[in-house]
Amino acid sequence: MSRLRGAIGGLAVLGVVIALLWIPSGQVVVRLGPAPEEPWPRLRVQPPSPRSGAPITLVVIDRVPWAHIRLTVNGKPAALQRIEEGPPPGFWRWTWTFRMPPGGAIIAFYRDCHEGCRLRGRWALGGPEPTPAPPGLPTRLGLVFPHPDRDWKGRAGWAVELTYARQPEDPTWGIDALAGRVAHHLAKGLRVLIRVDYDRGQALPPAGDAAALAEYLAYLRRLAHDERLQGVYGYIVGSGYNEASANRLAPDRPVTPEWFARVFLGFGESPGRTDNALQVLRAANPRARLLVGPVRPWVRDHDGARRHRVDTPWLNYFNTLVAALDEGARAKAAVGVPDALPDGFALHVPGRPAAAR
What we know:
It is a single chain. By secondary structure, this protein is of the alpha/beta class. It contains 5 helices and 17 strands. The protein has helices at residues 175-187, 210-225, 257-265, 277-284, 313-334, and strands at residues 7-13, 16-22, 28-32, 42-46, 55-62, 70-73, 76-77, 80-85, 92-99, 105-111, 118-125, 137-144, 155-164, 191-197, 234-237, 289-292, 344-345. A 6-stranded parallel sheet has the order 12-13-14-15-16-17. It has a 4-stranded antiparallel sheet with strand order 4-5-9-8, with no helix packed on it. A 4-stranded antiparallel sheet has the order 7-6-10-11. The radius of gyration is 26 Å and the shape is elongated.
């Protein structure tokens, strides 16, 4: 029996199927009843053994007519070709075509992506799933939009990506393209930070706009739910919002320090409310970190009420912002909301050799 690579047999006793399974170790497993049904969803591939670079037709079959589905190949979204019901009735088929990547492919099928993609099925095609690369040497090196072919020379740096709440399906800035870039960075052993802006030219929802705030928080919740983004290190709320160019959609309602603190942790509202970025993100993904987006230095467009010892608009703005965040966190703590503080601050730190001394 030890020479067998594997065999299966069975017999019926009083109407009960007994299945005997020999496995390579020489053990015998006895299972009563019919063989279990193949799990759902199911994958069909043509050709069955594709070569690198060859065109592939891939069909996912399931008993549930999932809406808002996605399929990724090595982390990158694939283009859906068609959806069919049956045959037989009660079965649904989704078809994609793409070319076989070198070295094999990890196929992942997701459902309910309008609320944050949830994994439904995962397969390795053309070989076993690759072993994760060993962690690189930790560094402080960080790049915004690093080139995908950059050689990090065994070092684990930081990659900063950007997405817009009002453009969730954009082919470049939307969540699917973002998920593909994140998968690529994580495969290289990088730590990923995602900056979430409201829209192009508008870092955060305009001050006092409740509908825009709800839209921003809904997108943040979707990002945190999405299983393709679970490896993200943290999220950054906006950037450069004290600058006029970051308030172009509503220049008459610029982001003030108080409004930023309202968006971030609910400053100025009842401390029992949860419609703020910090609580929305942590409710959706308790492991996610949330960073205060950077105030842009050397900018005089918007001031703050709390004067810094160096009385200049951008430092006054930052001073007022920190005070509002502190007050908001204390109010949350007073009603029993744990850990209402930011996980950190993102900073703009460009040099300015020509600045007055």
